Amino acid sequence: MNKIIREDIESIVKEDIPWEKLKDSTVLVTGFKGMLGSYFTKVCLYLNDELNYNIHVIGLEINDNRVDPYFVNHPCMKIIYQNVSEPFQIDEKVDWVLHAASPASPLIMKKDPVGTVAANALGTWNALQIAQKGNAKGFIFISSREIYGQPFENQKQFYEDTYGSMDHLTARSCYPEGKKCAETMCVCFKEQYDLNTKIARLAHTYGPGMSIYDGRVQADFLKNALNKEDIIMKSTGVAIRTYTYVADAISALFRILLDSDEIVYNIGDSNNEVSIKELAETIVKINPEDNLKVVMDLPEDALKGVSPFTLGILNSDRLQSLGWKPRYSVLEGFRRTLKYLEIEKEEGRL
Q: Does pTM surpass 0.85?
């Protein structure tokens, strides 16, 4: 296991989360190969390896491409390869479910909008059926900041009960509208079957395990830094976002699943608000010996009349009331991510 990930997991397990609820249980993780799914799974297996928690993990993934040998060889791990959008059968009684199976790359959303909406809508239906059948103790669905849409004028933050606007009659809405449908399913299963469902809305989560080829700006910037290339800005980069390091996001997921009362929580670190340009400048500073630069390749009038625009920052007051406190700044989080990528490259896994 990459040492950066191991350090993160050790830090997560030290948090004041009621881990004992996971003892002697079976956990289903859909999309376990992704960044969030793999971290969540590794925390469960670490609790087994170090604290003898006797957690049986069932991981569901669409194929066996690039599955971590750690998962394949672990005695407490069972892997099922199939599309989450198609009905699946699990013979074991499932106690806890993390439903994280969904395309997250804008490139995939553009290429396969049907598969994207299906993974969220049909996939959530299938996962909820498994949870209901086993009378699961808890089910948590990975949703997204995108369900809020675009903020209205002067709407800086999104709370769990405030929304912006969205045009559902575009193919790109396959992702947020699929997530919204899945959220409604979670509420319906809670109302009709008293299933303990939870919804986690995340925004711009990054860290070890993310793909540097998925088309998002943070991925492109990290790919540039890893290859010791200057970052070429093709836009003004004034849009403001918040970035949450994956270890902070994972500790939030466990806290919501194991120790919360509300059904929906935002996961976002409002202390880490940065513009796209500031993010690029932060990343090139991580390894100053590389002498990288941020180069603005813009038309002469690109900056005229431009004002900073946020995409709607997630308010995480509800989550923080559970005791969650993000630990990693943008600089430290991206430094750890780049170090992880460097180790993966050096050891031939990237």
A: yes
